[in-house]
Write a structure and sequence with these properties.
Elements (H helix, E strand, L loop, with lengths): L1 H13 L3 E7 L2 E6 L2 E7 L4 E7 L2 E6 L2 E5 L3 H19 L2 E2 L5 E2 L6 E6 L4 H6 L7 E6 L2 H10 L5 H5 L4 E5 L2 H7 L6 E5 L15 H10 L6 E8 L23 H9 L4 E9 L4 E9 L4 H7 L3 H11 L34 H7 L4 H9 L14
Parallel strand pairs: 9-10, 9-12, 10-11, 12-13
Antiparallel strand pairs: 1-2, 3-4, 4-5, 5-6, 7-8, 13-15, 14-15
Helix pairs in contact: 10-11
């Protein structure tokens, strides 16, 4: 009898609440749900903050947005490559090919970014004079400031260089007369029922090209799943209208290429997303500039980091500790103020797998208002 009771207790000890997320058709991530800090429904989406295998996690409409374990990987990858490239585009090139950075970027626009971590990374650049962030959902901002101060919190929201606007990023950019050195779109994936689909269209990208400064203006957007080895589900069949799931990485790349001289893809593994994640950077300039971005010597990036990067004071670091990740106090400068991005990492971001490159070449889709492309 004792043995039977021990077996029952052992099985009960395995039971727990679970967090389950559909990543792709037939693929789910399942992990223990340790705590629910918050759950609510805003005018736009369901918002939750939980503790899971990856630490504190922001979830909207059942999709992981960022976690304590690896949010810095996503946000540093999104922000620093375009800001440093804007600096180099605004500078000069010596006869031996050495690039001397200019004074840009001074002004940056963020569409979305409700966790405030994208703004946190932008404000690490000591060249920044003005940062405008427009997010449509006040509930996300409220929840993140209260439950996720490590992402930026009030220290970022009330930063003197920051103008935080609750509103429609699409409407703002369509109506603004201001010019920005860098535009960053940190928005929800283009899902059919989501609020972000208009921010992934050719028409919108055309407008962003008009709002960017010249000649150093750089646009970047998160671009969804970018599997190292693309799965067949990423490509809907032409006659399969019911297959709403596909990747948007190459359609976003293709669409930006119709507007800008250069549309450059890059990727980074994000463990909590269950896959590699894609970004696309776009800018204008002569043909050699596209290759130069990916081939920047390690020391160019590392020197820019030492010269320009400073941690944002007042932002507490995550109590959750990933192995090998340094702790920030808010006083660090240079490489000590970044957890992920450096010269070596930069080269890796732009080194896409052979299978991914081949798959992207075969995908000719372009995203317009009349012909959107949706993610799963």
């Amino acid at each position: 009898m004792a043995d039977h009771d021990e077996i029952i207790d052992k099985e009960r000890s395995k039971s727990a609440f679970k967090y389950v997320e559909d990543v792709a058709p037939g693929l789910r991530l399942e992990m223990d749900l340790d705590k629910i800090h918050h759950t609510s429904i805003s005018d736009f989406q369901e918002v939750q903050v939980i503790d899971s295998y990856f630490g504190k996690t922001l979830v909207t409409d059942g999709k992981t947005q960022s976690t304590a374990h690896d949010e810095f990987v996503y946000h540093e990858s999104l922000v620093h490559p375009p800001l440093f490239w804007s600096a180099l585009l605004s500078g000069t090139t010596e006869s031996d090919g050495t690039r001397i950075p200019g004074s840009a970027p001074k002004s940056v626009f963020i569409g979305g970014g409700g966790e405030l971590a994208t703004a946190r990374e932008v404000l690490k650049h000591n060249s920044i004079e003005r940062l405008v962030m427009v997010d449509i959902d006040p509930k996300v901002l409220e929840v993140c400031k209260k439950y996720m101060p490590e992402w930026g919190g009030e220290a970022v929201a009330s930063h003197p260089k920051m103008e935080l606007i609750v509103g429609d990023a699409h409407k703002y950019l369509m109506e603004t007369e201001e010019k920005f050195d860098v535009i960053i779109m940190d928005i929800s994936d283009p899902i059919e029922a989501g609020p972000g689909i208009a921010l992934y269209t050719q028409e919108f990208y055309q407008r962003t090209s008009e709002v960017l400064s010249k000649p150093n203006g750089v646009f970047v957007t998160q671009a969804g799943s970018a599997d190292f080895i693309p799965h067949p589900h990423a490509f809907p069949e032409d006659d399969d209208d019911d297959n709403k799931e596909s990747w948007c990485f190459s359609p976003i790349l293709n669409t930006l290429a119709t507007v800008f001289d250069h549309s450059i893809p890059y990727t980074v593994p994000v463990p909590s997303f269950g896959e590699c994640w894609g970004f696309v950077m776009a800018f204008n300039g002569d043909a050699k500039e596209a290759r130069a971005l990916a081939d920047l010597p390690y020391e160019v990036i590392d020197n820019l980091i030492e010269e320009r990067i400073e941690a944002v004071s007042g932002v507490p670091d995550h109590k959750y500790r990933s192995k090998g990740v340094q702790f920030l106090t808010g006083k660090e400068k240079g490489s000590e103020a970044l957890k992920h991005y450096d010269g070596v990492t930069h080269r890796g971001l732009f080194s896409l797998s052979k299978s991914l490159r081949i798959a992207m070449k075969s995908d000719k889709r372009i995203m317009t208002v009349d012909n959107p492309v949706f993610m799963y």
